[in-house]
Amino acid sequence: MRWRRSRRSRLGGEADRATFRTLHTAGLASPALREGLTTASATRASRHLRALLGVPALALTDDRAVLAWDGADDHHREHAARLAGQAAASGRTTVAGPHDLDCGRSGCQARHAIVAPIVVDDRIVGTLQAYADHSSGALVRATDEVTRWVAGQLELAELTGSRTRLAEAELRALRAQISPHFVYNALTTIASFVRTDPDRARDLLLDFADFTRYSFRRHGDYTTLAEELKSVERYLLLEQARFGDRLQVTLRVAPEVLPVVVPYLCLQPLVENAVKHGLARTDGAGQISIVARDHDQECVLEVEDNGAGEDPERVRRALAGDTELDSVGLGNVDQRLRTSFGDDHGLVVETAPGAGTKVILRVPKFAPGVSIG
């Protein structure tokens, strides 16, 4: 049987081409609006919005001031600010005529203005104003539709901002949760060596300083796996000083995954859980294994202990964020992984009473929007 290459599909008539142009123009305005309603974003979006409506001039405002004007006759900015305040007060789309926009200039095309309030989460955050030499029902309806679309983009911007603020709040909570569990024991251990082994006490103090500096740093939501592992090693040195021969650590890391970008403080809480909940319940030697391996397009991290294990139902509650459980950061890390990489990249916990615990996380080697900043 012969296969013949078909002709490339084409847009049919003028209606199809007009639809394509509209969607393309809206797509050009979308990235700016996803940043929220600011002077910079309004300036970048306004020319595309004016093209959507096909009007001589367009203004974007907040509830009282002009953020951007695109097109001719920008001497009407003063009118635009006044109209924005009126629309914000009334909450309705209004049409201003020549008596509202009297400028005394011959040839001015901005003789009518359709002013539509931009409503986000039941709040009027600004207005979109379309200026033309005449108004019509079709232009009013088009302005309303474009304004509703703008509001939708701004709602998505607020949602993105809310997720970012939530992630930052979770990270602050994680820092606060780690410190009480660890700082007291670390300082007590260091103090115990001051007289018997001053050199070791000094080295441990330096490790403690480096660990806390990393844990409470203020910049960036992400780091490299190499930096995260350095912090984990400092933590384990301090815990080995505390537990002595009871704590045995195995670390196996594939060099090629060291540059992989991971959420800041994604590994250390899991290791702390292994020490706290695994080794604290056994009289024998506790063993912790940390593995980082290369797997196709992902880095797979595993933290395993031979401790007493846990009830799977308690683990489920911890991953759901139950604050009544004494599980350092498990739900926090799970949520941040899902936020960064999607729901398919949450923690996997294998455990049962008397069987130890193994926590597995997968991190993409590359993920859009995830970088060290």
Tell me about this structure:
GO terms for molecular function: kinase activity. A five-stranded antiparallel β-sheet has the order 2-1-5-4-3. The longest helix is centred in the middle third of the chain and has 57 residues. The N terminus is likely disordered. The protein is 47% helix and 20% strand. It has nine helices and twelve strands. 35% of the residues are buried. The radius of gyration is 30 Å and the shape is elongated.
The overall average pLDDT, rounded, is 82
What proportion of the residues is helical, as a percent range? 40-55%
Radius of gyration: 30 Å
Q: What count of helical segments does DSSP give?
A: 9
- Unreliable parts: 1-11
Number of strands: 12
* Largest sheet: spatial strand order: 2-1-5-4-3
Backbone shape: elongated
Spell the H/E element sequence.
HHEEHEEEHHEHEEHEEHHEE
Largest β-sheet summary: 5 strands, antiparallel
Helix vs. strand class: alpha+beta
Question: What separation lies between the terminal Cα atoms?
Answer: 56 Å
Organism: Nocardioides jiangxiensis
Keywords: Kinase, Transferase
GO molecular function, one term: kinase activity
Protein name: Histidine kinase
